[in-house]
Amino acid sequence: MPYDDLLSRAHAHALDYLNALPERRVGSTATRDELMAALRTPLSGPGEAPEAVLDLLASQAPRGAVACNSPRYFGFVIGGATPVSLAADWLVSTWDQNAGIYVISPLVAVVEEVAGDWLLDLFDLPRDSGVGFVTGCQMANLTCLAAARHGVLRRVGWDVEIDGLQGAPRINVVASAESHITIDVALRYLGLGTKCIQRVESDAQGRMKPDALRAKLATLEGPTIVCAQAGNVNTGAFDPLREIGEACNAHGAWLHIDGAFGLWARASASSERRALIDGVELADSWATDAHKWLNVPYDCGVALVKSREDHRAAMTTAAAYLIQTQGVERDAVDWVPDFSRRARGVPTYANLRALGRDGIADLVDGLCARARQMAQGLAAEQGVAILADVVLNQVLVRFGDDDELTRRVVTGVQQEGTCWLSGTNWQGKAAMRISVSNWATSEEDAARSVAAILGVWRQVRG
């Protein structure tokens, strides 16, 4: 078989890469010019040996790829694929299914239907909600807000899918001062624009103030969408969702919750952690990622919408050449923006089934414990301050109460290589941002990373 040698070769390269993760430098070492020199060549006429191409790509990964799946990678909010989800993802590539409609892949349609049901059960959300597997929380937010746009206009007698936005009743969009940028981008894509957003004040932890929201809603008439947040990208803080949900329901507003990683707190075994997300069920739609805290390979986001009718109406399409189901079978194209798509729900199914409720709770709670461990270790050092309560897996750190010193520490840590993290600005101050999201991060990894960060800080302060 022509596959045998190449797949065996790829398997060996993959194991070399994975086995090196625990000890390798987390950041990349090669410059753009160096990678270009190794990889750029005129496209040949006859082509090259497949084995040589595979070997070339594999040879550049240790120096050119950032080890985002390292147990000491704390940048952005990026999980690392568990072994079972990675193995399932290999099967997805092997099967090479276009998961757009049932008739192309009954297997994937059923797997994703079951995975969607499990997620609704795990998060304890309305079981008849619509579910769509998308590329990430950007498209999950867009999908949910498209359903919201359809739903609030439908209530006032306007079909936006047929008649468009020209001449439509104006939609009020309300979001906190700390809403994630993907909300803004989704509104741009949906033709509503960012100017439509009416901002609500947030507190020192980044939580929307419910009194300010109620005051804002009292001034609004007509179709209204409110965007709340479960897990601030900097602090991990949760908007007071029950108060927000009750205010939205009283006003007749559609409530959307961006829970890119914070929605997974709903699966925690900790009553204190679950209390953070109390009231999430009052919303009309929810967006989250599986490639963050569920630790499946990129890419996989999830859009969940309480009204299946509004969800489907906003997404579905039809054409004479398609063979779409008229029965109980599930066509993914009814729930997501794209047609040709990878079977990205399969690794989610594999991880959910392999971990079970207890395993997912352990994953969430264990990484929260590692975040607290790192915060405590850093806070014990003179000149190091933790800027917000560590309620989840996010830690904000400032050094010497000085922007330039803080930025130098962030850069120094990235260059030192033990771990990798990024910087941010929080309420006008430069900060180091640590996100603990990888299933493999151990107490030892957290301690090594704290020691490396403090070593850089001591050098910087002189």
UniProtKB/TrEMBL annotation:
It comes from Noviluteimonas gilva. Its cofactor is pyridoxal 5'-phosphate. One of its GO terms (biological process) is carboxylic acid metabolic process. The modification N6-(pyridoxal phosphate)lysine is found at K292. Keywords: Aminotransferase, Decarboxylase, Lyase, Pyridoxal phosphate, Transferase. Belongs to the group II decarboxylase family. It holds the Pfam family Pyridoxal_deC. It comes from the Bacteria. GO terms for molecular function: carboxy-lyase activity; pyridoxal phosphate binding; transaminase activity. This is Aminotransferase class V-fold PLP-dependent enzyme. InterPro entries: Aromatic_deC, PyrdxlP-dep_de-COase, PyrdxlP-dep_Trfase, PyrdxlP-dep_Trfase_major, PyrdxlP-dep_Trfase_small.
